[in-house]
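Thread: "does anyone have the structure for this chain?"

Original post by V.I.:
We have the sequence but no experimental structure in hand. Need at least a predicted one for the grant figures.
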Amino acid sequence: MTIENDPILENLGMAHLGNPKVLLGKKGSPVLKEFRAFAMHGSMLDMAVGIIVGAAFGRVVSSFVSDILMPPIGLFAGHSDFSNKFINLSGHAYATLAEAKAVGAATINYGVFFNVLSDFVIVAFVVFMLIRQVNRLKSEQEASLEVMRDCPFCFSAVANKATRCPHCTSVLTAA
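Reply from O.Q.:
Generated one for you, tokens below.
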């Protein structure tokens, strides 16, 4: 099919752009193949899953802060709801933050900021604990690798303290 006789492109007024079938060929362009390989690469999929789980975790933490953590803090501090605390800069009196926002009044929303700051501190702490655990597991794995060495005769993994290779029974020198 050529550009001139493609009725769909002509009806859309896009015949001058060229037929995508001609541009891609029967099996697709090399760029498309390369992008497909990149998108299906393991680390790309891992990153996508991480982003999705991270977004869900962020919503859970936000709910925890605004629905569970902040009400008792607000009760002990003498305020019932931190998300409704603000400083009005417009000079008019407003009972709630929603009312001030509806009118378009200038406000400093320190209660909302405190909630977001609490979200950040909790997420940062959880990420720190996760990274700490991953680093601990990596160091344990590296330590276990140092306990082994290769047999010079059959190249099998042998414990450092071994005097004979369990695979080829060769006599080994002390490591």
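V.I.: this helps a lot. The chain has a mean pLDDT of 80.
O.Q.: and The first helix runs from residue 7 to 12.
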